[in-house]
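Exercise 3.2. Students should predict the tertiary structure of the chain below and write it as structure tokens, then compare their answer with the key that follows.

Predict this chain's 3D structure.
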Amino acid sequence: MRGERGSIAVEAVILAPVFVLFMVFVAYAGRIVAVQYDLHSAADVAARTASQSRSGSMVTRGVQSAQQAMNLNQAPCSDFSARVVKRTTGGVSEVEVVTQCRVNVVGLSLLGIRSPVHSGQSREVIDVYRRP
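Answer key:
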């Protein structure tokens, strides 16, 4: 019995940092998943909006709706950008939106992780009966 005195304290000293690092990793993974979802959602909204717009305002309306979607979701992003491209392949016109941002990792510096850049992409067929 005497040889085991203090073993709980030693285990706590060893396991506490491992547990903290695990919790930081879980928070980091959750942030990455949330940003990816928000980027794909913003790309979907932007592609849908751009596909229903006139050709002259297609790009600006698509970019604006992507920025509004990201602001509405309050995504932990910095350096957000959206690119809208109109294409015609095989007689079908479509619009493609690519959203991109750098994930904000403030508060997760225990892992020494850099801010990764993630992107989302969506395509929509351009609506033939668009609004004016």
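Discussion points: Helices lie at 7-51, 58-73. The beta strands are 77-89, 92-103, 117-125.
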